Amino acid sequence: MPVPSHHEDLSVLHENTLPPRAYYVPASGPLLDAAEEREASDRFHLLNGHWFFHYLPTIHDLQGAIEGFASRDFPLHGLTQVPVPSTWQHQGYDSHQYTNVRYPIPLDPPFVPRDNPCAIYLRDIEHVPTPQAPRTYLCFEGVDSCFYVWLNGRYIGYSQVSHATSEFDLTEVIEPGANRLAVLVLKWCDGTYLEDQDKFRTSGIFRDVYLLSRPQSVLFDYATTTRLGSQTATVEVRGRFHGGPVPTTLELLDASGALVSSAPLARIVPLGTAPAPTDSAAANTADTASTANEMDGTVGPAVAGGAGAASTASATDPDPAEEPAPYTHRAVLEVASPHLWNPEDPYLYTLVITTDQEVITDRVGLREVTVHDAVVHLNGQPVTLRGVNRHDSDPTTGPAVDLEHMRRDLVLMKQHNINAVRTSHYPSDPRFYQLCDRYGFYVMSEADLESHGTQARFLEDPGWDNQVEHWNELIADNPEWTRATVDRVRLCVHREKNRPCVISWSVGNECAYGCTLETALAWVKRTDPTRLTHYEGAYYRDSKRRYDYSCIDLYSRMYPSLEEITDYLHSDGSKPFLLVEYCHAMGNSPGDLEDYWRMILADPRMCGGFVWEWCDHAVRSGTSADGRPVYLYGGDHGEDLHDGNFCVDGLVSPDRRPHTGLLELKNVQRPVRVVRFHQDLGRLTLRNNLGFTDLSDYVEVSYEVRCDGVVVDQGALPLTGPVAPGATTDLTCRPTVPASGRCFLVVRYHLAQDQYALERGHELGFDEIPLDNADPRHHMVASVYGPAREPAPAEPPAAGPDTTPARTLNPAGASGTSRSARTSKSVGSQSAAVHAERSRNRVTVSGEGFCYQLDTRTGLLCQLCVGGTELLARPAELNIWRAPTDNDRHVRKEWERAHYHQAVSRAYGTTVQDSRDQVSVTSTIAVVAPSVQPVLRLVVSWTISPSGALRLSVQGVRDPQMPPLPRFGLRLFLPEQMRQVTYHGLGPVESYPDKCRASFHGEFTTDIASLHEDYIRPQENGSHADCDYVTVYGDRGSLTAVAATPLSFNASPFTQEELTRRGHNTDLVPSGHTVLCLDAAMAGIGSHSCGPALSRKYRVDEAEVGLHLTLLPTTTATTTATTTDTAPGSDLPAVSQRAPRASLS
Fold first, then answer.
1. 8 counts as catalytic
2. Which domains does the chain have, with CATH numbers?
3. Minimal CB count within 10 Å: which of 180, 360, 660, 677?
4. pLDDT at 253 over 70
């Protein structure tokens, strides 16, 4: 059976498809919920379910054993069945492949490999004609990459554009009773060159398929436009018909169902033409017998004939960029005292469009998007996009996601202060937009267009500048691709043009720039001037000609540095600045959110941004022996061409478990911030960062004072008056502050009332502010290090409307604070003696109940025996390596070139000072590695007191030629049974110098398994910054480290070497020890996996390094447990109730 070869023909993009239209579901009466209950329509017939299926490795096999598959008599026995929607890779056919930029096929547009895999889908349909709705339309909402359709052996048509709706008219072909639907799906087509998105490449019918039963004459397409006056609003509805105009009435209802406005749909009278009569139905029907076209608002029936049938974008069509306005009928609905739509109050009216035989139910949000002085406004208020980039991605079903999946994503986003979604890099399921209308999200709807792989073209000069110079030649600036480019943009715009959530059209992603995009942008501007236009790829163009940017509304950049943003705002700033992708959330990430948001909040020309990206992409492959899901990424399926784990780059795991990066984002984007606190005056100033809502109606504010982790004061902070969006208010706050101890004021924000997906009491975020007192040290630090020196005058917190004076908490995390008693047996007493013995390579220091050894070859501790219990499983190490995070992927090369991963300590000489009161062992050492000069030159001093306390002082210099260090600290290997941990510092969420806003200062008790963040690709994780002390303990002993200046610690069952070498979390092998890292310095996290290099202020690149702490080993007699606090809305495991206390005697 011959198959048309449209899939390599740029002149045939679709064949026999109906023109693009707005999405809606018709019915015989109004629908209560057109978004979530479209199956309730009696005119909607879903064809999802199990279809007969046959996979072919190459399309040439069609000429073999399954000749005639499209006929209604083709035998079904022997065929398998697969669910529709799904992809065939997820059903065990073909193989998964993940690539980011590079095409999985030869770069030879528009041609694709001749051995093109394909699959046949067959389904029997029982058709029951409906007299009131005799027409039958077949809709495919998503097929990758292209497909041909037959019904009862007759060829129906062809279409491509994977994430767009393709609609066919079956009226002349479908028969009463049994019908056989056949679909041939190809893996690749010329459209593959325009669908080079960063994702797993999958194939098949992955979105819903359904039939629509409709009357002979219908309102085929309509567009709603809302305009706002000072006290009124209007809804303009323009429409076009299929089969001839029919009397049509529009009603606008409010949320309670009350009628607000109504009007008939009347013919638009061209200027200079006499008005139509108004005394009969003819006033809104027009000429039903005419053979109308798009210009006069009707659409002729598709010809279900053969390959010669008309195409909506064929070689003979007019240029789609010059498409005439299709609407011929119009109605205007007036709304007095309108209730406007915005993301904080997504109020929706119901639009009911009624003809005598059909009803269309839709939702309308009254809002208006404008730009003034380079600031984006909605309804006159400045817009701040707290957004994410979102792919359709499920670990089990891939891009085939159902309504519940979409709803779960949006609710989770709402819970984490996200208000915007970019549908990267293609249109989402049409119901997703309706959910965004309802839940309140700004949406940037992006066309299914990316030709990033043309950048990977082989060039003699592979430099970046030369790549950019040639990037656009094959497609973006090639007129042969204009029709295909504009077609994809049209399909996106027409389908979602009635959605209030959509405030911007993005014509594509990473195609470079050229005539194809210029034409598409101009078409969008002419078609829908009410929304913003966007295309970040306009930044990448060659130098051969001047380009037109007049149709682009936003200055958009991906992953710019803070310096680049500042330069633009100072040197140009003529358009709103958008971070369309920023803070790459790959693995332990992102680490620079607060820095970006300080800048966003400081300048309204910055309209916000979209974090890349929402979820990790991975394929689930069963369950590990310990019950965890096994996730696979690029290269795990035997493919040669892949981009590894670059797809595992989300704020949530594949199964939607929030990563710590999402908790960080939540609090950074909290709707209210403390901008200043004057402790002496008792005055706290809050700023309302909401765009539309008075703070007094939205939030309840409370405070607590924590001193050394204990809540010593708390209360409510009532808002006594209105606080408009963007305004500040002063509250009286005079907290009780102890004279000593490390004290913080924590100001928490909770939702004051139920709001759509959120319940009253939901924690929105909080601020943490350090408090002044006479001795602001933790009591344990003061006990170990003695009286405080005269404190320097405290600098007042920086003032200003966008300044956050301290670290902050993501309230979605648990705030565990526990106080407990622990009876520990001191290993010695101050009255006992301590003495040292020196032997070959060892210095042994012993006292009452303890015996320690230091290795004179390294200058470090190698034995820690207390009460007969050895607390060191391996000798201690000075540590400069960390398991590279995904954001370390570039700097890792420098680290390894410097052999940091092989660094060890080497002592040059050791001296011992022995007295009854103490023993001091001092070594001059270097940290050395193969092939390179010493990285560090240090003096290491251990001072052991009769009580058994060990005071460590390390001071030295870094070789200035060496790259910045990953970390600098001490690594200890403790017995495996020492698995419990108590610490005072930033928690309970992992924290780093630039990733600590999800944490607050408290005393936390947990275990090492809970401290581990289980990223799919193992890497540095679970550290906690700004800690005063940490105790690791088990049934037989404990070890406490008290910091002279706050340190970062990490306690893990895995070594950093194990984390470095393994590619998957489920392959990790515990070390058999508890690995405790005590770090004086830890590099920041950043977002350098696909963003700017780590900011200098977060690098460990100082010329001098130092580490000062005291180790307190003890034997454990008994433990007693007390309660543990957990913050409301906690998404994290409750912390343990056991807490140790080290002896300080």
1. no
2. 6-214 (2.60.120.260), 218-368 (2.60.40.10), 371-616+652-665 (3.20.20.80), 617-651 (no CATH), 679-787+794-805 (2.60.40.10), 828-997+1008-1113 (2.70.98.10)
3. 180
4. yes
